[in-house]
């Protein structure tokens, strides 16, 4: 009788497995897990390291900015023949200076504006002053915010200060010749560069699979006052409002915001917003693969 009982038991277990599958097994396992490995809180468990920067690998809230519809606004204006770059903090090193000259040399017919602390007031509008949290941001996050602010209110090209050889004049002409386009520029170079939000789910997978439909975040051209730039700026400012009080107590102490209590993850104000919005507005964005040169060292 023992073999018969064993067989019946195995059949019963097989029935349970067939009916309930993996969820049943996981539930059984997890119900015993606290005894196997008791829980203790360690914040490093929910963080990840990218170079010198520590960022969250998990989040206690999700910002569903892709679900919000941008209010109807007039058709986007034409992009001006202008390149913006931004520099805050210490004096540029030689690599940055060479990068600046490379960008200018590749685009001799375009106006080049380097926005710094000295001329920032010239490029802010009284109708839309900078977010009050701006003053406490790291130099990197100031750049993330300002590039979006400038692209929305003024348009043209934004570029990081790297030895990028993109010729922007024909791209701006292409952008302005198509009323359906909001932005144009080189495509992201690899799926590994996309900035996925913590708890990203299917969106994170799509960001990786469709990375070549995403603009390279270090340089791109935009028409001003488009739904794309409006959505981008709105989401950054929502996040800054969330972080405002934390920033008052824990402002950035150096350009990268590497002090341990600085509350904003390195990619939270640009990459985590920019990449998903590229997918949302992919019919209005032209990302061109293979345009980014090997620009070498810049730090």
TrEMBL record:
GO terms for molecular function: mannosyltransferase activity. Coiled coil: none annotated. PANTHER family: INOSITOL PHOSPHOCERAMIDE MANNOSYLTRANSFERASE 1, MANNOSYL PHOSPHORYLINOSITOL CERAMIDE SYNTHASE. This is Mannosyltransferase OCH1 and related enzymes. GO terms for biological process: mannosyl-inositol phosphorylceramide biosynthetic process. GO terms for cellular component: membrane. It comes from the Bacteria. The lineage of its organism: Bacteria, Bacillati, Actinomycetota, Actinomycetes, Micrococcales.
